[in-house]
Design brief:
By secondary structure, this protein is an alpha+beta fold. It is built from seven helices and twelve strands. The structure holds flavin mononucleotide.
Length: about 180
């Protein structure tokens, strides 16, 4: 037996990729970070994120063409909810305003939340900007990837140990984690 649900609930059944934070910087150098549940790989080196155009992050990315996707760890979901609770344009540097510990990303040198499982540094090409501006579909090009070496040590073939610590958004403030290796 299946129960029919309102079509508006579709997104509550299809979770996105792992919960991420997106770090960016404004043209005048103010760091920002937000949280996003709706994301997936588009190509091997092209992560896709669906972002509301009203976010400070969206304006920052359109202005600078640079941002970092940060994979949230189950060890610190508090920072993710803090980053998703206010707008950078209202509070200034959100890392400072919300006490989110930070470090610098390896290639672009952007301020990113410390303690994430992995980071994908991205650039947004001019040719991809119209799709982002019009539909909020952000498809950037990875220019650097860092993974916690505890979870992807030299010689390991994949990120299975890191993925055990990824979380997915269920609804509201509810996250789910888990999974055993199968197959
Ligand atoms: C768990 C969670 C998931 C979220 N997922 C998304 C998302 O997928 N896309 C989006 O545009 N906003 C999402 N948000 C909302 C933004 O993180 C939030 O509006 C944030 O304050 C924007 O910050 P900014 O204006 O500094 O960029 C999410 C928030 C939370 C708490």
């Amino acid at each position: 037996m299946y129960r029919e649900l309102p079509v508006e609930e579709a997104y509550h059944i299809q979770t996105g990729g792992p919960l991420i934070m997106i770090a960016s910087v404004s043209e005048d150098g103010t760091a920002d970070v937000m949280t996003a549940a709706w994301n997936a790989p588009f190509d091997t080196d092209q992560p896709l994120v669906v972002l509301d155009k009203s976010h400070t992050t969206s304006a920052n990315i359109l202005a600078t063409g640079r941002y970092v996707i940060c994979i949230v760890s189950d060890a610190d979901t508090k920072s993710a909810f803090a980053a998703g609770s206010c707008k950078g344009r209202d509070v200034g540097d959100k890392f400072e305003a919300k006490g989110i510990p930070s470090r610098k990303s390896a290639k672009l040198g952007l301020k990113v939340p410390d303690g994430c499982l992995a980071y994908i540094e991205c650039e947004l090409k001019e040719s991809e900007k119209p799709m982002f501006e019009k539909y909020g579909i952000l498809v950037g090009k990875a220019v650097g990837v860092e993974a916690d070496e505890k979870y992807w040590p030299e010689g390991a073939g994949d990120f299975r140990e890191g993925m055990k610590h990824e979380v997915h958004h269920v609804s509201g403030s509810v996250l789910i984690r888990g999974g055993e290796i199968t197959g």
